[in-house]
Design a protein that fits this description.
Layout (H helix, E strand, L loop, with lengths): L7 E7 L3 E6 L6 E2 L13 E2 L9 H17 L6 E4 L11 H8 L5 E6 L7 H8 L3 E5 L5 H8 L7 H14 L3 E7 L8 H12 L4 E6 L15 H13 L3 E5 L13 H9 L4 E2 H10 L5 H8 L3 E6 L2 E6 L8
Parallel strand pairs: 2-5, 3-4, 5-6, 6-7, 7-8, 8-9, 9-10
Antiparallel strand pairs: 1-2, 11-13, 12-13
The structure holds iron/sulfur cluster.
Length: 321
């Protein structure tokens, strides 16, 4: 018996998508990966082949109800987002579901680990969405196996070819997401390989993230602020549109007029160079004391890249944020 209330959730605030109504088109936790940082814990049901999970009409009915409820409460919805407790492209009906949802007039997003993108039918389904995010955590085979712990059926080179092919044909907005894990995939060499690969994709927006909730592997630690800043600068040097995604959804868009809040919001997305911080303080009629205070309160970190000082929001885990 299906609990229909679990097929959708939200709308929830999303830094990338605004107000996002989540669609849970995969039962927990069916996935093709078992990432060491997965916030859902270890994969219970490892799958490599697509299959039917729910009837597309049931998903549509549930989404329609949620939209009606949200409208009744005056809550806006910017995206309908396939972001289940598993890998959304394992659902063989994903394309059909997107087609059924399109007439509702709300943009559709899919957040995928990209493991099945070498299959033409998966690419065709994803092409129907307006926004697609693909996971690229590693380029080296051993690191990929270590961080994503894929189903043994997958081949990394085929996945890369699928991503490249998809980026050429997809007409919507393509995003990539790279989760940086301390001492696993956060060395400059691997980050450089990831950047070179992403630089070859057509118009991708890249998000650099770290685990912000308790991960599947208790030993897993997020990359530190210095590494994250270095990764950001390296992405920028290759002219890649990059942003941090480090777990502050709430006020990331807001310019509150509260200088502290604004500085923390900005530096959670983009590290600020010292000159930019000075400029910002001047506009707000403030001085450097506020920065020193934020550093003393352990909310802001000063770090260096190529002899320039950068300021980045201190990373915290959700449970102690
Ligand atoms: S792909 Fe996503 S759902 Fe699957 S194990 Fe990795 S983080 Fe978890």
């Amino acid at each position: 018996m299906i609990n229909h209330d679990l097929l959708t959730f939200g709308p929830v605030p999303s830094r990338r998508l605004g107000h996002s109504l989540g669609i849970n088109n995969i039962p927990p936790k069916v996935c093709s990966y078992s990432c060491i940082y997965c916030q859902l814990g270890r994969t219970l049901d490892m799958q490599a082949e697509r299959k039917v999970f729910y009837k597309p009409e049931e998903i549509l009915k549930n989404v329609e109800k949620k939209i009606k409820d949200a409208k009744g409460k005056g809550e806006p919805i910017d995206y309908l987002t396939f972001v289940p407790d598993g890998e959304p492209t394992l659902d063989i009906n994903l394309g059909k579901e997107i087609e059924l949802l399109k007439p509702l007039g709300i943009r559709i997003a899919v957040i995928s680990n990209a493991s099945l993108i070498w299959q033409e039918d998966v690419r065709d389904d994803l092409c129907k969405a307006d926004w697609v995010s693909l996971k690229i955590d590693a380029i080296s085979e051993d690191i990929w196996r270590g961080v994503n712990r894929p189903h043994k059926f997958f081949q990394l080179d085929k996945i890369f070819r699928g991503i490249i092919e998809f980026s050429r044909t997809f007409k919507g907005k393509l995003a990539t997401e790279t989760m940086l894990i301390k001492d696993i995939n956060d060395n400059t060499e691997e980050i450089g390989k990831i950047i070179n690969f992403i630089a070859g994709l057509k118009d991708a927006k890249s998000y650099i993230s770290i685990p912000t909730r308790p991960p599947a592997g208790k030993w897993v630690k997020p990359a530190n602020e210095h590494t994250i800043n270095t990764a950001y600068q390296l992405f920028k040097e290759k002219s890649i549109d990059a942003e941090h995604l480090i777990g502050y959804e709430g006020n990331a868009f807001a310019f509150t007029g509260n200088i502290k809040q604004d500085l923390l919001s900005i530096t959670s997305v983009h590290p600020m160079r010292k000159e930019a911080v000075n400029e910002f303080l001047k506009k707000a009629n403030e001085n450097w004391t506020i920065i020193e205070k934020l550093i003393a309160e352990n909310k802001l970190i000063e770090t260096e890249y190529k002899d320039n000082k950068f300021y980045i929001r201190k990373l915290t885990r959700a449970e102690d944020a």
